[in-house]
Write a structure and sequence with these properties.
The complex is a heterodimer of chains A (229) and B (296). Chain A has one domain (3-220): Pectate Lyase C-like (3 Solenoid). Helices cover 10% and strands 23% of the residues of chain A. Chain A has helices at 11-20, 185-197, and strands spanning 3-5, 29-33, 50-54, 69-73, 88-91, 107-110, 123-129, 143-148, 164-167, 178-181, 210-214. Chain A has an 11-stranded mixed β-sheet, covered by helices on one side. Chain A is elongated and about 60 Å long. Chain A starts with a strand and ends in a 15-residue tail after the last strand. Chain B has 296 residues and is of the alpha+beta class. Chain B folds into 2 domains: 3-44 and 120-295, 4-Layer Sandwich (Glutamine Phosphoribosylpyrophosphate, subunit 1, domain 1), CATH 3.60.20.10; 47-115, Alpha-Beta Plaits (2-Layer Sandwich), CATH 3.30.70. Chain B is globular, with a radius of gyration of 18 Å. The chains are: A alpha/beta (229), B alpha+beta (296).
Chain lengths: 229, 296
């Protein structure tokens, strides 16, 4: 089990070593100490690794992740797991802006709060936030699920496409073309399944969440809606 | 880009460390701002005296200026820091000093003034700028600093932050304002003068103008949310503390940490990583369009 101290080993060396691993590597469990908020730690992984990071990370940690599980024991900076393709990223603390931005797949779990623009332009990723999310979250979100246990800030789901948003607490305001929708059984099942994958074993009731999604009025430009932009 | 750092000390035992900690924070922000750097340090003040930070065109030039000052104002005392000098004058002499300086030393700029504030800024890498001015050995209650990656105007010392907004007040800025030309014209009509084409100077001038109209710094920042168009994170130094304001969509990053010993600000968490007790600190991001102040 490689144990890397980023106070000693350079970030470039670490990421280079992780990128060189073949998909069938036996060296799957990596522990990273002393990250000290450095950027792009464990970005671009493409193997079924389990990377544990003990401490706070900077920007784009686990960005573009494929297949790997990345556990961050601390806070994460801007763009954690941005453009994730698959795998699982778990932040035990808070996440800064644009967590899970543009993600195409995989699961991002944040145990604290996520800041503004969480899930911006998400394209298939599932995001679970135990705390609250900031303003402009799920802006132009195209596909995937954003599940928030706490509250959402201003302009949730502005200009949203087909992503589905579930919020248990209050929503300060909805963005353009985002509306509350009926929470049907298939949505409760979807929430239940994602929560199970994220490690919440039946201790959260999906029916406590409200669902938000697109009113589908902004898909094509219509001069009558010019005021909505 | 641009990087901002701020450190406000709550525990007097940490005051001798202010300069050393700020210098480390500033250097960490080199990646966000390699063009120029500057900082304001709030050290000891003396009743009845005003500290004026002056900047010359070179270290020789400022030395000449100081010699002239000591002849004209026998009561004044000065400390040289590279191209800058901090001159202590009797507060009652302030107006006479200003007139004299304009007449006798036209190449010397006033960078800032106040009972406690000293401002230093130059072109160059943050670590070099901090070393030239001896930041690491400075002590005080609080400091704010800035590393600049130039976008709206040239890489010059005039374009470096902090900008003074009044006695013991200064401003650093990460972002860019889009209506600074208009605002500068309006403020010039009101009688203000500007030295540069820099957008932050306009923001500083705007706040100064609002405070001349009678607003508190906090209220001036509040109304600024309507009048300043663009994206910005501002950190404002005051005699007793510092304030933070982010634009309404929080375009520019900001992280804060608080312990029993200090409140610290950084554009990125990396800035805070080496502070004492950071592992146990409360860490958060300031909310957009919200004015924060820490004072003691």
């Amino acid at each position: 089990m490689p144990d890397i101290d980023l106070g000693v080993t350079s970030l470039r060396e670490l990421n280079g070593a992780l990128h060189k691993l073949p998909k069938d590597t036996n060296e799957t469990h990596w522990v990273i100490e002393n990250p000290a908020g450095q950027h792009a730690i464990a970005a671009g992984l493409d193997a079924p690794l389990n990377v544990e990071i003990n401490g706070p990370v900077g920007y784009y940690c686990a960005g573009m992740n494929k297949l790997a599980t990345v556990q961050i024991h601390g806070n994460a900076g801007v763009g954690v797991a941005e453009n994730m393709m698959s795998g699982f990223v778990h932040v035990s603390g808070d996440a800064s802006q644009a967590a899970g931005a543009t993600g195409r797949g995989g699961l991002l779990r944040i145990d604290g709060n996520a800041s503004s623009r969480c899930g911006i332009s998400m394209k298939g990723i599932d995001i679970v936030v135990k705390g609250s999310v900031g303003h402009m979250s799920a802006f132009m979100a195209q596909a995937g699920h954003l599940i928030v246990f706490g509250d959402a800030g201003d302009a949730l789901g502005d200009s949203i496409y087909e992503a589905q948003l579930f919020v248990r607490g209050d929503v300060k305001s909805l963005g353009a073309d985002c509306i509350e929708k009926e929470m049907r059984d298939e949505h409760k099942t979807a929430v239940h399944d994602i929560l199970a994958k994220a490690g919440f074993n039946g201790d959260v009731d999906p029916s406590e969440f409200k669902r938000y999604g697109s009113a589908r009025q902004l898909y094509n430009f219509n001069v009558d809606h010019a005021g909505e932009y | 880009m641009c990087g901002i750092v701020g450190l406000f000390i709550k525990d007097p035992a940490l005051e001798p460390e202010l300069g050393r900690l700020t210098a480390g924070m500033l250097e960490t922000m080199t990646g966000r701002g390699p063009d120029s750097a500057g900082f304001a340090v709030y050290g000891a003040g003396t009743d009845g005296r005003t500290k004026v930070t002056l900047r010359g065109t070179s270290d020789d030039a400022i030395r000449d200026t100081v010699l002239k000052i000591e002849k004209a104002f026998p009561d004044a005392s000065a400390t040289l820091h590279d191209t800058h000098a901090v001159v202590s004058i009797a507060t009652g002499d302030s107006v006479r000093f200003d007139h004299w300086l304009t007449d006798e030393c036209e190449d010397t700029e006033v960078v800032g003034r106040g009972n406690r504030m000293e401002i230093f800024k130059e072109v160059g890498l943050p670590a070099d700028v901090a070393a030239r001015f001896g930041l690491a050995t400075m002590r005080g209650t609080h400091a704010i600093g800035h590393t600049r990656m130039a976008t709206e105007s040239a890489v010059t010392t005039d374009g470096a932050h902090p900008y003074s907004t009044g006695q013991d007040q200064c401003l650093v800025h990460n972002g860019s304002l889009s209506n600074h030309n208009n605002l500068r014209r309006e403020l010039r009509r009101e009688g203000m003068t500007f030295e540069t084409e820099n957008d932050t100077e306009v923001a500083a001038g705007y706040l100064t103008h609002r405070m001349h109209e009678g607003l508190s710094l906090g209220d001036a920042l509040e109304v600024g949310l309507n009048d300043l168009d663009g994206f910005y994170t501002f950190v404002v130094g005051t005699e007793n503390g510092f304030g933070v304001l982010r634009d309404g969509i929080a375009c520019k990053p900001a992280v804060m940490a608080e312990t029993d010993q200090y409140v610290a600000f950084g554009s990125e968490y990396r800035v805070l990583a080496d502070l004492p007790g950071i592992g146990q600190a409360r860490i958060w991001e300031p909310e957009p369009a919200t004015v924060y102040f820490w004072e003691r």
